[in-house]
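Much of what follows relies on a compact textual record of a protein's fold. The record below shows the convention in full:
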Amino acid sequence: MRCFSYVLTYPSGSSLSFLPHHPTLLKIRVAGERGIWDYFTNSLVIAGGGLLLQLAEAVPAAYAPARHRFRGQALVLTLFMLTMMLPEEVIAIPLSLVLGDVPVVGLDLKGTMWAVILPLGAWGFSIMLLTEFMKDIPTEIEEAARMDGVGEFRLLWQVVLPLCKPALGVAGVLGFIMIWDQYLLPLIAAKDPTDYTVTVALSILRTDPEVGSGVVLAGAVIALIPSLIVYLLLQRSLVTGIAAGATKG
């Protein structure tokens, strides 16, 4: 509340109070003049693209170990977990080198949004979450569908996936927030300051001597909006998915 109060008042640096005396959007306008909305758009594109890629990869990657036994299955699941164990600081330099010269195709992705979207699409948490959820889905429905001649892809799309909505809600909310809060990867992947995301822009805005803390807080309020909207829209799925996981445990 203090953050919102400070953003909406004190355009001339007047004394502090909990409730604004003369509310104004001056600091938000100043943040907009500093390009915060352009960085906001960059973050939206990256978060949306990264989340879609993440879920598109996670669903089939989770279905395979959840429903089929194959050699090296434990190793595959362990590799998925390793993507969550390695901190960004450890892989920052190797990732920067790879993005500058993508193996096989030899593309230079640095300076493009794909340099951020592609690495963030490979998040092991979504795969592990969906794998455990799919294991709890009764197989009788799938067996009946197979007897009717339903293929594997159609079975996944029309039978299994609708039953995974609670888990997809959890993966969607947490995945979006994880991507939206990224700082290091957008920083090293950008070649031009105009490619920065809103989180990187806020850290730079803090060092600008021409703006005060009120403008920085205004930018922080703007950056908070998408995560809040995503949570409110998927709140029911999030609670249902967490409750299902707690019941299993």
User: Anything to note?
Assistant: Residues 4-10 have pLDDT under 50 and may be disordered.
